[in-house]
Amino acid sequence: MKFIIFFFGAGIILLSVAIMFDINYFNYGRPIPYSQLQKIKFSDFRALKKPGMTLYGVKEFAFIKTSRSIHNLNNGDIEITTYFHPSRSYVFSNNIRDMDLLTHELYHFHISEYCTRLLRKEILENSNNISNNMIIRLNKKYYEFENEMQLKYDEDTYHSYVMREQKKWEIEIDSLVQSLAAFSDPFIPVRSKK
Amino acid sequence: MFKVIFEKNKIISLFVWSFFCFSVIKCFSVFIYFLTNAFLYQAFLYSILFFIYFFIFKIRFGTRLTYLQYITNSLLFIIGIIIFSYSYFKLVMLDDDHFNIVFFTAIFISNLILTSFLFLLTLIKRK
């Protein structure tokens, strides 16, 4: 019995330490939806950096964690929201006033929202025969698309260091997000067609 | 022959050990960052940790495992690790994080080879 208590307890402690670096539960911040984008500041980047983690050898960096949540509402409608996760997003110093870096990180959030709007558009266009499995499949498809886009954004701008590319991407992302303004509402009315 | 390893206390013991090992590796990969996606290193560490269990089993239950019992335990150990990893992914990570089943299959296979090799070493020592 001592063996079980000791190793199970030790496992719990070690796992708690590991989880803290994936989601900082000591300084937890609720996920922020895209509609509250303007409120995000570097002080909201609360995650802990894994020791030894660098960006091509540079220790002064930031990363943002975004996700998409899909809810089937009681009335049959679907709600799809893009979230920013404070406790999973990191910046090397919360007090910095580097607006360029913050803008770069927030454009990752814009890309996530763009993909969410693409998903909403496709669901709405197929609302006659949409099923949960189809939504899961589409969500996966747009996550893959988003990952590629996020990687290309970081590659082209070299994580905000290449200002000319950064400005180019900002204009492109703004226009892409704006082109899908009709799908900015998280609620998708599919109730009668499901 | 397999009845020895499928008794309740032995299964619980293996389950607790695999949970402990999963936590150790998880914590290790936080502090040694390159370990996060290095399957061969992870497989090696899991093999070493499972090999330690071979002696724990011997001390706790007074039975020396045969090769077949040892490999069966190793299979159960890795299945436990995969279950814990998947649970971690479901409970802690977000749905756009990847649970790479190929990565765990690679750990599964390489762990079997490495644990077999380590078992072989114990036989050489006996002779």
Structure, explained:
The complex is a heterodimer of chains A (194) and B (127). Chain A has 194 residues and is of the alpha+beta class. Chain A has four helices and six strands; from the N terminus they run αβββββαααβ. Chain A has helices at residues 2-20, 99-125, 132-157, 163-179; strands at 32-33, 62-63, 66-72, 78-84, 90-91, 187-188. In chain A, a hairpin with a 5-residue loop joins strand 3 and strand 4. In chain A, 28% of the residues are buried. Chain B has helices at 8-31, 39-61, 67-91, 101-126. The A-B interface holds A 3-4, 7-8, 10-15, 17-19, 21-23, 50-53, 65, 67-68, 85, 88, 139, 143, 146-147 and B 12-13, 16-17, 19-20, 22-24, 26-27, 29-34, 56, 60, 92-96.
List the helices and strands and how they pair.
The complex is a heterodimer of chains A (194) and B (127).
Chain A: H1 2-20, E1 32-33, E2 62-63, E3 66-72, E4 78-84, E5 90-91, H2 99-125, H3 132-157, H4 163-179, E6 187-188
Chain B: H1 8-31, H2 39-61, H3 67-91, H4 101-126
Helix pairs in contact in B: 1-2, 1-3, 2-4, 3-4
